[in-house]
Amino acid sequence: MPDTQLRKTILTVEEVFHENGPAPEAPLLRGAIVAVIKNPYAGAYVADIQPFMDDLKPLGLLMATKLATALGGADRIEGYGKGAIVGEAGEIEHGALWHAPGGYAMRELLGDARAIVPSTKKVGGVGARLDVPITHINASYVRGHFDAMEVGCNDAPRADEMAVVLVMTTGARIHNRAGGLDAADITGEDGLR
Questions:
Q1: Residue 2: is its pLDDT beyond 80?
Q2: Does residue 150 contact residue 136 with C-beta atoms inside 8 Å?
């Protein structure tokens, strides 16, 4: 299995105080962590790429821990998402290797959250940006938590790199009033409702 070669991480935290309406008791926190890593499969077709997922698991847990800590602790997290930007010498399938390590790391850290972790990926050049979708950690139909966070890095990914991303939030969108299932009304164990 290839080793995970980490070049840098970028940690971003937003404090949202209002969106033209009344300020909440506490600001909504939205955060992202990006890890820029070497893509061991860049530049050539490799049939069996799945072993790299196991190598990415420790990185996923490290990233999830750092991000949750920056947002005040795992017990405060209500929303999450993940994504990957693959450098130009790679392929979209290389980004798919982040699905399990990134998603399971957050779910493990957050106490086995039930909802599937929404995800996106693309191939892009240096400075490419990615809109990472966000949903509630326990029920995908909680409309107030439908969100996205734009992430990227000014010098990544280089052609032979990937930028893998985790995103978390501490609540619904500020001034959420579009209706639908509320987080307080989650009843199911299936990650949907």
A1: no
A2: no
